[in-house]
Design goal:
Elements lengths: L7 E6 L6 E8 L9 E5 L5 E6 L5 E7 L6 E9 L2 E10 L1
């Protein structure tokens, strides 16, 4: 029996990242969401980058991280005024 793909998932690679972070977003309901975006935050919760997530249910976005200081960050997927997924990322 084949397992069904999750309705929502967020995968980051490479992690740790040096120049670019590739973000694979799968969201079966994205076409119905308002304000869908990928946000990169520092550990103090400040939004450093915000990118529209688009309207396609499976998409890979490329986020530049080369200008950021080395350290830990959080990449979150937000829509409809709430955080739907979040992952920790390390920048070298």
């Amino acid at each position: 029996m084949k397992k069904a793909a999750p309705a929502l998932s967020l995968h980051l690679y490479p992690n740790p990242a040096q120049e670019y972070l590739y973000v694979l977003l799968r969201d079966a309901g994205i076409a119905h969401r308002r304000g869908a975006a990928l946000q990169l935050l520092d550990l103090q919760g400040r939004i450093l980058q915000s990118h529209p997530a688009g309207r396609i249910d499976e998409v890979t976005s490329i986020l530049p991280v080369r200008g950021l200081p080395a350290g830990e960050y959080v990449l979150r997927y937000v829509a409809d005024g709430q955080v739907l997924a979040a992952e920790r990322v390390v920048v070298r």
